[in-house]
Amino acid sequence: MFQALGVHGPELSPLGSVLLDMALVAAAFGFLLSAPRANRMTAAMLMTMVLATTALRVVMQPLPNVQPVTVAALLVGAHLGAKRGVAFAILVSLLSNLLISHGWWTLFQALGWSIVAVIGANARLIVDGRLQTARLCLYAVLAAPLFGFVSTLSLISPEMSVGQFIVLLGQGLPFDAIHALGNLAFAVWTGAMLHQFLSGLTAAEEEVLAVGDVHGFDA
Q1: Is the pLDDT of residue 217 over 50?
Q2: For residues 75 and 164, what is the distance between their CA atoms, to the nearest angstrom?
């Protein structure tokens, strides 16, 4: 299934790539289905956000390691919960990499952003309905080296020593710094906007689900 060692890790054969895609899609929808029930509007708007974030990542690809996905994953996790946050992270990773550069590394990038979404769900970024901007900025910066470490795991090979892996991590530090600065900029620039969008989404969902409980139907 592995053909050659590429820039981000071993390149997959066509069969391996198809199996990876199927596994990621199955995982994403598995997390969506296991999340608390949601109405059609929530699902549609979540997919809209997936597509918008994917498009933004593709457009910003020329900027080295500036990743708009990280702040979005933090806030989706904070507003919609860990499971939907993980589904969001997986789908954005898969769709954007299909347009940028897809391979074995997509699995690790999806894992990295999934961890970020879970952190967002547990970091108290929203308190009494208000976005904690300073806390968001802090976690956005800290998420950069974490994501860098997880994504670097795709480069591990049987021949690699611990020392070589440490050197590899050291070589990635400048890119992690750029990622952290980009995350900080996105947190300040888009944090309030994303919070407002997701707050309206969750409020609408709660209202629809409350009506469903009263009238005895599943929204």
Answers
A1: no
A2: 35
